[in-house]
Write a structure and sequence with these properties.
Elements lengths: L1 H4 E7 L5 H4 L8 H9 L6 E6 L3 E7 L3 H12 L7 H7 L1 E4 L1 H11 L11 H15 L5 H20 L9 H13 L6 E5 L3 H12 L4 E6 L2 H10 L3 E4 L3 H4 L5 E4 L10 H4 L2 H4 L5 E5 L16 E5 L4 H4 L3 H55 L6 H27 L4 H14 L18
Parallel strand pairs: 5-6, 5-8, 6-7, 8-9, 9-10
Antiparallel strand pairs: 1-3, 1-4, 2-3
Helix pairs in contact: 6-8, 6-16, 8-16, 9-10, 16-17, 16-18
Amino acid sequence: MWADAIMAMGVNHKTAPVEIREKLTFSGDCQATVRQLKEIPGCDECYFLSTCNRVEILFVSRDQENTARAVRDFLFSAANLSDAEIGRYSYFYQGEPAIDHLFRVSASLDSMIVGEPQILGQLKQAYRDATEQNSTGTILNRLLHKAFSVAKRVRTETNIGGGAASISFAAVQLARKIFGELKGKRVMLIGAGEMAELAAEHLVTQGIDHVTVANRTLERAANLARNFNGSAISLAEVVGKLEEVDIVISSTGATDLILRRDDVKPLMRQRRNRPLFLIDIAVPRDLDPKLNDLENIYLYDIDDLKNVVEVNKSERAKEAASAERIVEEEVLKFQQWLENMEVAPTITAIRQKGETIKNQELAKTLATLDHLSAKEKKAVEALAASIVNKMLHDPMLSLKTNCRPEEKRQKLALTRQLFNLDQTVGAPPPARDAGG
């Protein structure tokens, strides 16, 4: 059945700590990763999602066991993990659990901060990357569009986003917990992407005195800083400017550390040991974990934000329960679509065979009835069509009736055997080949 051909594999903040997740970080070119996935034998459709909190591959294959093994090898090829570690830190879903997982991700039920809106944009970007590489087809196109509509329905029918916050806001909440009040503090954002912009928006509302934006591309830093009447610097200037700031939030896409312990240690004397609060929300990490060893430096990474998430958890849980019911309902609807897709080729084949037999018998019969008028011939044709339709009605209705997946498989196999569909010249392939 097609449901079993849908699989999801990956790691996220629930299954693996940041030091494991950062081992699976791919290059910034997700389309290149999709191109490599397409080359895996048996991988009929695929898409790739990489965020701060998850690296995930969704794929469709009729050669499920071999393809899943190949995708697993690809995902962990550079991670240098043992088989036991891969099993401990990763997840694998197939069939209905894979559909449920995707819908929960899109609805932000699987996020570190339940209800954060950022994941939906990331899903849509991953889908755009996949479609540009022609790596999605009938199944994933329908599945991902349904995931987007599930997210929209959850946002519309629940208040799941009301008590939740983005990761950037959680970082700001943590800063308030350390300093008590942020008014008059100076902040440096390393990275000028969406995460940095969200952090800046929240910080400004808390009375931050000045925002400095550092980025590899100075123009992007200047554009973001302009929105907050701040200043822009290059990454090369970061260390020299640390003396002037109180808070650093780093969220670049760099593959190596931006700040190291030995870079910052000499500055603490110049700062007269004023506390320096560092939040690293990048994966892989931007900031050297050894910075935490220095006096009056407080470094937190993305996993530390889990503590902030616990705030208002009970309120979000109530909304999440409603969202879970929506997801469950939409999973059942998608399962029904898959079942109909499974049945459709067989129903089409039955109709085609009935039509072929009807036309052949009509041709032979009408050839011997030259005396019939055109009106009488049409009446005979209508009679033959009516007989065929009524004979086929019950078998086709039976195929459409809801039942357990195993019963559906047996019914399809028996129907194709009874109607001799797979041996009929010109008949469509069995249902397992539909939509591939």
